[in-house]
Design brief:
The chain is elongated, with a radius of gyration of 25 Å. A hairpin with an 8-residue loop joins strand 7 and strand 8. The protein folds into 2 domains: 154 residues, Umud Fragment, subunit A, CATH 2.10.109.10; 156 residues, 3-Layer(aba) Sandwich (Aminopeptidase), CATH 3.40.630.30. The strands form 2 sheets. Strands 1, 2, 3, 4, 5, 6, 7, 8, 9 and 10 form a 10-stranded antiparallel sheet that branches. A 7-stranded mixed sheet has the order 11-12-13-14-15-17-16, sandwiched between helices. 28% of the residues are buried. By secondary structure, the chain is of the alpha+beta class. The protein contains 8 helices and 17 strands.
Length: 346
């Protein structure tokens, strides 16, 4: 659940003993639509089963967890309860945790949010989360007996400090790994012991997984297939470890015209063993089949690793006058400059 949009997909499937239940049904609504439906269900005393989208309640509620929201009247509210409510500042629906009781109501905050939502009166609380399901199994910790302790940790910012500490550890481990990946002996050894790599055209589930990898705080939105775009994923033991895409921009997409390689990404722990090279050649081979005269790409000029890879595969820096104003403007806004490289087909 993001702070503003607690869930996107509502489903009443699986709830027993109710005339309001539709088995296997799924309904996609705006935030206000979700709010109206949830209010109606709670007024009738009927629990609602819904898929959570977002990251504001991690690690206790994760993106795509299935939540059961029950009417508040079933049990008195208490410290640590996870509740659905309307936010005081904008009236939108959210699902966060009660971290303190005040004279005016309940102080509520997401477990992964830097700031509380504010004090919410009891009448603004619509329902409470009575069940969390993750990958088909019930997850008890976030709403079990430990919930008062979780509320205290939330209130003291200890949960956020834990997240920051884990991120620091990951960054440190990543830098150490980069040092090892620069040695040829390490790369040869990893190639010998690495599991079998499979590269294939990405399906919709693959694209959703890649989106979660590259944009972990943004819910995925399915789109209609684009005939000018082909995506590839590299998998090891069924897990996606790399991604790239071929994009053809026709003349009406000026100045981005031609056959392009975009979004080449290999997970840090799997770099240095040729995965990026294989994915890049998928794009080159696709462009050849389209009778392309050249393949273009852009990357940040401070990415020396990318430059070495592309140069090794026959790409050379090039200036495209039509793109230069856009790239220069981008540098002013972001502080980083992207450059263009081109591989001519023989």
């Amino acid at each position: 659940m993001s702070k503003m949009d607690c869930f996107d997909n509502l489903s009443s499937s699986g709830m027993p003993d109710s005339q309001y239940v539709s088995q296997g049904g799924e309904l996609c609504l705006s935030n206000l639509g979700q709010l109206a439906l949830l209010l109606a269900m709670m007024e009738r005393g009927v629990p609602l089963r819904t898929t959570a989208r977002g990251y504001s309640m991690q690690p206790f509620i994760c993106d795509k967890d299935v939540l059961t929201i029950s009417p508040v009247k079933d049990r008195q509210l208490s410290l640590g309860d996870v509740v659905a409510f309307t936010q005081p500042d904008n009236g939108r629906l959210a699902i966060h945790r009660i971290i303190e009781q005040t004279d005016d109501g309940w102080l509520i905050r997401g477990d992964n949010c830097p700031e509380p939502d504010g004090v919410v009166t009891t009448e603004k609380i619509i329902g409470r989360v009575s069940r969390i399901e993750r990958r088909g199994r019930e997850a008890h910790l976030g709403i079990g007996k430990a919930r008062p302790l979780i509320a205290l940790l939330n209130r003291g910012n200890i949960l956020l400090r834990r997240t920051e500490f884990l991120l620091l550890l990951r960054r440190t481990a990543g830098r150490v790994l980069q040092c090892f990946q620069s040695f040829s002996l390490y790369r040869r050894l990893i190639k010998l012991i690495a599991p079998r790599l499979v590269i294939s055209v990405a399906d919709e589930d693959d694209l959703e997984a890649v989106h979660s990898l590259l944009n972990p705080c943004v819910p995925y939105r399915r789109q209609n297939p684009n005939p000018n775009v082909t995506n590839w994923v590299a998998k090891s033991k069924g897990k996606i470890i790399g991604f790239t895409q071929y994009v053809y921009h026709p003349q009406e997409h000026y100045p981005w015209v031609g056959h392009w390689l975009f979004s080449l990404h290999v997970r840090a722990r799997h770099r240095g063993v040729g995965i990026g090279e294989k994915l890049t050649m998928c794009v080159v081979d696709k462009a050849k089949k389209q009778d392309a005269q050249e393949v273009l790409l852009v990357f940040f000029e401070d990415n020396k690793r990318a430059f070495r890879l592309y140069h090794k595969l026959g790409f050379d820096p090039v200036t495209l006058p039509a793109l230069e104003p856009l790239l220069a403007e981008e540098k002013v806004k972001t502080g980083r400059r992207r450059i263009v490289m081109r591989k001519k087909m023989r």
